[in-house]
Amino acid sequence: MSDTEKPRVSDAEMLARFQNSKKRPPCSDTLGMRLVEVEQDAQRIRMDFDVSPGFANPTGAVQGGFISAMMDEAMSTCVIIASNITMTAPTLEMKTSYLRRLMPGKASVDARILRMGKSAAFMEAECFDADGKLVAKATATAIPMLFKRLG
Amino acid sequence: MGFDKRAFWQDLLTRDDLPAAAQFLNFQLVDLDVKEGWVEAAFTLPPEAGNPAGDGQGGFVSAMLDEVMSIAGSIVQDGPAMAPTLQMTTSYIRPVPVGQRLIGRGECVRRGRAGIFTQGFLRREDGALLAQATASCIPRALG
Hints:
The structure holds two protein chains of two kinds.
Chain A: H1 11-19, H2 26-30, E1 34-39, E2 44-51, H3 64-82, E3 87-88, E4 91-98, E5 105-116, E6 121-129, E7 134-142, E8 145-146
Antiparallel strand pairs in A: 1-2, 2-5, 3-8, 4-7, 5-6, 6-7
Chain B: H1 5-12, H2 20-24, E1 28-33, E2 38-44, H3 58-75, E3 81-82, E4 85-92, E5 101-111, E6 116-124, E7 129-137, E8 140-141
């Protein structure tokens, strides 16, 4: 993390900053997202989701793209936090493996940075169902870009 | 055998009670070819899919592509069927607007006995490519 000119805050403070943010993007509310863990040293976060039955496919399970949406949300937020809220990171490419079906309701995602470079960021994420079973795994690349303002 | 595959899918994909995920994405069938294994559909992302920049969040973009690719993987099978996605890779080529009509195209690349390979393209109405994806899925007969 070379671009952290701002003083770092504690994990608890960073978590509170996101939980109390009034500028949540619409997609966060749509997915019922709540950031629940931040570990800045390990460059990882955990998010809880409440997945709407409105994202079901014909079998009643959550359509794969919406599982990707949860993981994209977590991986993108991971970059923002790893950069100490100086960078955002539009996703270039994302690959998701769907291991099990996920029913609407509670889910959580663990996301971490694999490498945060100047011109590229590499992330990975795992999505778990309410019983803690791994339902999907994703990797993604993104381009870190300076945030205009936030936080 | 009286099974009219084209009529079956045409009817299923234009019903009022489309699956919830398809309704969220404002899925609307444009055309499909069950022999060549492709489908085109219009989508409009609702504002609820917006990211901090006001564009469609990547996962919702993947969701649109997953819809048309899963249909492509389903219609190439013999009878009523679905094609659960095993793995999917999406490239986000340009920002995807919300509230704007987009065109998604899903194609079957290869229909194997145990595995089906698909690809998908999402374009603006002026033809600009916004995102593309490849996926592998498994054939599953229904009923």
